[in-house]
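QA checklist item 7 of 12: single-chain prediction sanity check.
[x] sequence parsed
[x] length recorded as 165
[x] structure emitted
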Amino acid sequence: MTQTRLIPENITIKFADDAATLTTAPDYKCQVTHASVDPTLAYNTTPATGCSGEVQQLKVPIPWVLNLTWLQDWSAPGGGLANYANVNAGKIKFFEYSPTSDATLKVSGTVEVAPVGFAGDMGVVSLAGPVAWQVQGQPTFATPAALPLAADDELDADDPTYAAS
């Protein structure tokens, strides 16, 4: 398989009250400096005994967070994403994030919105965050369609390139 890289740019990141209105929701891409959806890994540990060594097992289901940092935009119409975060603090909102201009590559779900601070250091751009908004349940990942195998290729079941989205 050839090398592929993900370089977030020309992103789309939206929040809405329901999934249906995400398409018409404001896009905060011009404010966001960092966005990622990350698992929070935790393990159960069974200590060693006289019969077996220590065993660690990943706790499931795995919780996820939407990590964000953005330029404070309080002076934007409506107070921007900063005001959105404060007005909706504690509420569950739908989100959709595409890290590139390829709309088939995206993650969506619902998050619990948390507030952000106001202003910051003198003489420099004030950032909101970093914040970690808790994803409710499991996020939904959409990837480009599966690639067809060449005649001499073998299917590697562990290779996500050939997995259906």
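[x] summary fact logged: The chain has one domain: 12-39+57-157.
[ ] second reviewer sign-off
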